[in-house]
Amino acid sequence: MSKKRVVSGMRPTGRLHLGHLVGALQNWVALEREYDCYYFVADWHALTSHYASTESITADAFDNAADWIAAGIDPEKSTLFVQSMVPEHAELYLLLQMVTPISWLERVPTYKEQIEQMADKDLSNLGFLGYPLLQAADVIIYDAHYVPVGDDQVPHLELSREVVRRFHNFYGDVFVEPQPLLTPTPRLPGLDNRKMSKSYGNTIDLADTSADVVKKVRQMYTDPKRVRADIPGTVEGNPVFSYHDAFNLNQAEVEELKQRYRSGTVGDVEVKTKLAAAINAMLEPMRERRAQVLARPGYVREVLVEGSRKARVVAQDTMARVRAAVHLDY
Ligand code: TRP
Known about the structure:
mainly alpha, 2 domains, single chain
């Protein structure tokens, strides 16, 4: 009964979509078997960039956690909690700040990238600079060995390990150095072939109805050179086929569609109709579970409150060790 621990979090900044499913949730579900999993709503992380409009964060937190359960996360197996309900994360974050050079945070690649990408937001706040350090606290407070993340987050884990080593140099060994557990799935493009993002409106959401899915798939970007069904088309880099690869379990059908697409013997309507059917087949059981979860008033909240209570016990235990190491044990 000494399973290694996994910790991962998601920011509550809107509804979850297929990108979250293949980029995180399916992996989270798979890890439940082998690890002691702690999954949390990173609401403070959402605040680092969304501090000017915080009113939807709690609703998004409940909505996202409902989707986690709908996607197959078992609240009996994994600990589901809310970051801000375990205030020890903030205490550890503060202590880590004492030993973290500002230049280390300025050098994290996502820092400058995100400031450019979110040009509509003022990200000159200290909280945003500290984002990866708060993330380090999230992970090491639970002695997590592994952190399932996408490759964009690897530098954050790198920073976590550097900060742990520096902390250990001053105060002795207290923490586990966390390793990233890379999610194997390739990144899916958005429906319009740009980066998938809620702000571009190019996502299929886990809570979309089957009619929404049919409509969205019909409007998907595909090979623009193919103005007629008898013109040979390009499969590689075509988002319609990336989605078929990711969601259509009938591999023979996918191969056949690809061949006919390349030879100009299939229409876009058929390719897209089959894709929408495959996506709906996958989402339907999740829709049902989500409806069951939401039919129980207060259930999601209960799961998060109970999970946070449990997480807090572990976090407080770690903080007792940390305070002793820093010689702040009164
Ligand atoms: N930065 C992560 C993301 O954007 C969210 C996150 C916050 C996280 N704290 C974490 C992920 C700790 C893993 C572990 O997706």
